[in-house]
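testing teh design pipeline on a random one, pls ignore if ur not involved
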């Protein structure tokens, strides 16, 4: 295969690729407007610029993957969403399994181990960190050894074993010995996190790989000619994929009531039984799935490319190192073309094209480095806002039920965005690009934290429990239940809904971005890198354990709001130029680098299992 230095590749791609914004400013048709877009089915550049883009029909196998993700997320959120009370709160009076007596259910809170807020926060933060570190394991195994399908199948069994241990940890016999129950819980978290993380790295790219359509024209029943766009289809796939995640997370609704009314063993048993669906659905569709095979030592080669390029650039002077890394010749030491015929070092087992893929992937994936701040805001709805809710008037509502407003709001909003807002913007020529969507996500997440900060301030003013030392005697009712603030618990809905909207803008777009910007042979690893930002966020959050107490919630939420806004602004200023390179970045690793790889073309399958 003919290879080209990266600079020549860029030159060729730039000469063929025109961003949508540039084309809108061009009021005349040039000579290339009638040339068919390579990889398309009879679509010209003029068609691409003037016709409305719509999503194609999703394949049957994509919906099978949706079912897998739904079941896996139900079991994840159906357990982790009740961890806070399970670890933090003691056994309610007269309880052996964590359930609340019928007479106490108006104000009572389920609990079991009684380890307190900070211990609960630390364990839950570790769980999140672990679940988003282990995608590296799944991504490496899938891309270099087993492939995505087999990796998901194997680790679904691993995850199921973890769920069985979790059920065992929550039986009355285990809870009677809190330290034993805690040990089993941590073991279950470690095993479930390994399984869930490996699945998570692979199920996201696998669902998009099920679509293999090409850019083409189609006439609607109304007579309008439109472009069936793989790019818009991938966007739609990830919207509905995220809807499946949030349909699954609604499993925590039943878990909250099961824990309160029947104990934690039943709350954990239901998702364990549901998880059996994951390997069954995978096996049922084995012959229909589009499967990309593993590509061998691609990750090791990637590390070698980076190492060879970084070696000459490294200096004890950090400023000199940074300048060298930004040099146009930074990647030259790792390119075979640099050395000439017969002089290529033996350790170079790749071509110039592969070096270009590594360079572009790293450049594009820099956007994920800003996401730890976004996930810091999101993490507040997992636990701290549940604690906020516990200090409000419940009127029989389990405090950990409220966090289900987040997935419910996402489920409601996704059809509105997919069928209403996004088509409306496209029809009017408004390019609400991935970078703009992610920036909007940061802004909305900041608004959610402002709402939470103001609400906590009012709770502090109206609650008998002031959190300024030893609580006064009036803090507890005669039944030894915390005397709450008179503010109704449903007022806390605001941050959950706003964070849900922020996820649609930022989180869903990050999945789409990770898939479209990664070469076919590195999609799982790039997805793992994207998800690893949540682990970094958890590590940062863990460092804030000392301020994750109710007395400091007002300032904690407010600080996160300001940080999210500043980060979102910097993110947009740094990466706004990527909007103009969207077509080029989508072409990474999609075929002949000398030509124009169709900016809308999805990753084509290698074979079917």
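output:
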């Amino acid at each position: 295969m003919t290879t080209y230095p990266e600079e020549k590749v860029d030159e060729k791609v730039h000469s063929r690729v025109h961003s949508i914004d540039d084309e809108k400013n061009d009021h005349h048709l040039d000579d290339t407007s009638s040339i068919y877009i390579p990889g398309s089915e009879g679509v010209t550049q003029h068609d691409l610029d003037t016709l409305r883009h719509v999503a194609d029909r999703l394949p049957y196998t994509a919906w099978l993957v949706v079912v897998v993700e739904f079941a896996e997320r139900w079991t994840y959120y159906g357990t982790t969403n009740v961890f806070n009370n399970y670890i933090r709160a003691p056994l309610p009076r007269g309880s052996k399994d964590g359930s609340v007596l019928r007479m106490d259910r108006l104000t009572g809170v389920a609990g079991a181990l009684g380890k307190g807020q900070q211990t609960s926060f630390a364990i839950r933060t570790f769980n999140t960190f672990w679940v988003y570190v282990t995608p590296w394991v799944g991504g490496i195994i899938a891309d270099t050894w087993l492939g995505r399908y087999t990796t998901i199948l194997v680790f679904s069994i691993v995850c199921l074993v973890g769920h069985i241990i979790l059920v065992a940890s929550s039986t009355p016999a285990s809870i009677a010995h809190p330290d034993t129950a805690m040990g089993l819980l941590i073991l279950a978290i470690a095993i479930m996190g390994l399984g869930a993380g490996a699945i998570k790295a692979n199920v996201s790219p696998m669902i998009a790989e099920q679509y293999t359509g090409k850019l083409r024209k189609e006439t609607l029943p109304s007579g309008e000619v439109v472009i069936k766009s793989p790019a818009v289809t991938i966007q739609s796939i990830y919207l509905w994929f995220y809807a499946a995640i949030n349909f699954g997370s609604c499993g925590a609704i039943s878990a909250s009531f099961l824990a309160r009314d029947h104990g934690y063993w039943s709350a954990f048993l239901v998702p364990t039984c549901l998880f059996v669906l994951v390997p069954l659905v995978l096996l049922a569709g084995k012959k229909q799935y589009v499967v990309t095979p593993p590509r061998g030592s691609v990750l090791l080669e990637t590390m070698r490319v980076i190492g060879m390029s970084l070696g000459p650039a490294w200096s004890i002077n950090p400023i000199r190192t940074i300048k060298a890394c930004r040099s146009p010749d930074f990647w030259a030491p790792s390119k075979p073309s640099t050395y000439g015929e017969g002089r290529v070092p033996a350790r170079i087992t790749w071509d110039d094209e592969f070096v270009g893929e590594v360079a572009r992937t790293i450049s594009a994936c820099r956007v994920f480095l800003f996401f730890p701040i976004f996930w810091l805001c999101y993490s507040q709805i997992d636990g701290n806002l549940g604690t906020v809710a516990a200090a409000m008037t419940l009127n029989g509502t389990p405090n950990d039920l409220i966090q289900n407003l987040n997935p419910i709001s996402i489920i409601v909003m996704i059809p509105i965005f997919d069928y209403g807002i996004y088509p409306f913007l496209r029809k009017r020529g408004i390019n609400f690009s991935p970078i703009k969507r992610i920036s909007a996500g940061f802004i909305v997440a900041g608004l959610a934290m402002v709402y939470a900060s103001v609400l906590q301030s009012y709770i502090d003013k109206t609650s008998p429990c002031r959190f300024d030392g030893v609580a006064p005697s009036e803090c507890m009712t005669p039944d030894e239940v915390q005397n709450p603030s008179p503010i109704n618990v449903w007022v806390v809905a605001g941050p959950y809904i706003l964070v849900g909207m922020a996820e649609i803008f930022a989180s869903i777009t990050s999945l789409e971005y990770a898939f479209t910007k990664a070469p076919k042979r590195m999609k799982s690893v790039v997805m793992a890198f994207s998800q690893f930002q949540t682990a970094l966020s958890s590590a940062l959050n863990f460092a804030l354990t000392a301020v994750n107490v109710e007395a400091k919630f007002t300032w904690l939420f407010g600080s996160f709001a300001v940080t999210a806004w500043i980060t979102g602004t910097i993110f947009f200023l740094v990466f706004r130029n990527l909007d103009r390179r969207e077509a080029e970045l989508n072409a990474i690793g999609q075929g002949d680098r000398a030509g124009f790889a169709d900016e809308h073309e999805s990753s084509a399958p290698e074979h079917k299992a």
